[in-house]
Amino acid sequence: MKTKRKRAKKKGRIARLLASNDERGPLVEPRPEWRTYYKVRKTSVTLRLDADVLAWFKEGGRGYQTRINRTLRKAMTEGKKAD
């Protein structure tokens, strides 16, 4: 019985946090020096990749999703510099 109450309480807390995040608007992209102090909010998505691209990232073992994210972030920052 106690675990159900804890879960319900946690769900309520999470719902309040999500609602407060929506009211504040989008987060500002942190500066690189903030990365040690500030954890960037992650979003779960479904992404369709070519099989060979996914296999190449998975060859490196665990952490392939992090490597994909870093590659995309690098492309994003280089794209901003080119503008």
Describe the structure.
The termini are far apart. It is extended, with a radius of gyration of 18 Å. It has helices spanning 2-24, 51-58, 64-82. The chain is built from 3 helices and no strands. It has 83 residues and is an all-alpha fold. It has one domain (2-82).
DSSP helix fraction: 55-70%
Give me the number of helical elements: 3
Number of strands: 0
Q: Note poorly predicted spans.
A: none
Calculate the terminal CA-CA distance, rounded to whole Å. Answer: 57 Å
Please provide the ordered H/E string of secondary-structure elements. Answer: HHH
Please state the CA-atom Rg, rounded to the nearest Å: 18 Å
Class from secondary-structure proportions: mainly alpha
Strand content: under 5%
| Average pLDDT reading | 75
Largest sheet: none
Number of domains: 1
The shape is: extended
